[in-house]
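[retry 2/3] Glycosyltransferase: previous attempt timed out, resubmitting with same input.
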Amino acid sequence: MDKRTDQLHIYFLPMMAPGHMIPLVDIARQFARLGVKATIITTPLNASKFSKIIQRDRELGSDISIRTTEFPFKEAGLPEGCENIASTTSTLMYLNFIKGLSLFQKPIEQFLEEDHPDCLIAAPQFSWAIDVTAKLGIPRLFFNGTGFFPLCALHSLMKHKPHLKVESEIEEFIIPGLPDTIKMSRQQIPDHLKDETENLITEIVRNIMRAEMTSYGAIVNSFYELEPNYVKHYREAEGRKAWHVGPVSLCNKDNEDKTQRGQDTSFCEQQCLDWLNTKEPKSVIYICFGSMAVFSSAQLLEIAMALEASDQQFIWAVTQTAINEEHNEWMPKGFEEKLKGRGLIIKGWAPQVLILEHEAIGGFVTHCGWNSLLEGVTAGVPMVTWPLSAEQFFNEKLPTQILKIGVPVGAQAWSHRTDSTVPINRENIQRAVTKLMVGEEAEEMRSRAAALGKLAKRSVGKGGSSDNSLISLLEELRKRKSSSK
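[retry 2/3] Glycosyltransferase: success.
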């Protein structure tokens, strides 16, 4: 059979945000390794963040490429170079960015008409893709960068609206219909869910939900053994097709790939590994809040003081957005010198996968972004959970309540990315870090996390749950292709 006519061609259209792009690029690479022709669509600036890794895959024989089109920043009312949500610094900029996504339709529609791929895997934020793919008869899978549990929790919340039946922001309610008893308060959910009035954000969210509900199915960066009840719930109770293909970070086999996930690290990874190599197994805690967190200098100071008081060895990645030009104001005088040998501070992007899987790492302080949470699980590392925004307060319930591999730091209120929240005090941070790293309970969490890490690795191996799921998806798409000829 002629490979060119039989080969599946799949388009990947990631949302321009680090938490969406990094895993979807990894998924495209996994597809290409299984003989699929994979085309990633993005803007030149975003493409530069992963072009090296794609070039390396091409040299190894993968049929994978990047197609770029300019982002309409000017028409959307954005400054030049604002092509990623991580570059937005206000709600207005965020709304303009979403507007830019709708202006992105024309060139991509043209690509789809030219190539007529066998499937489009797209972020639901590109809600216009519903009509374009329907018109061209192309199946559309949605990828939202999160897991089954948060998707089920969000759907239940939107359907049953239990948060509208409580009297105050701090009163807890149960999210109905889920396999576990999950309690939250109004202050832990995004503003657009609390507010029933029509506005731009609620319209965006409704369009995103419609894009999900009208898709051929969902592709999810997760593995069955992590959240079996929620894989079943999503498929059966919600009647949705879904394929789990994760943890996708495991497609990065060598250190160079692990280092270059997302963007160039600002820190020499060898320096980092050399430092870790001098430490005892499970003795270091890693602190990182992802690429989108913005902290006040007061909060950074509380973290610094808690780390000093905890007596634990640590690696702390403080991104440039988190520093927010206030570096000199928050770091206690002589902090780095005093803790030399005990602590390592990375200012900027850190090679997270590489750090987490080092045997010296015994715990992870995380914002509960889905990618970070999954990378922690995959490395077999227990966590201190510190959700900030997006769906992170949902995500937190998975390690702390369901898997029992996490200690909450005590974050209570959802915040817009650019708002300063009430700082979590050093005593609470120190208490959570100590509970995670020291004592019998810490050992039990570590043991459960290690077992999960083994299951994660097994799931993507030959015959594993995610491997089988991915192969079954490709078989379904191939059958669909041959029947439509």
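[retry 2/3] Glycosyltransferase: The first strand starts at residue 9 and ends at 13.
[retry 2/3] clearing retry counter.
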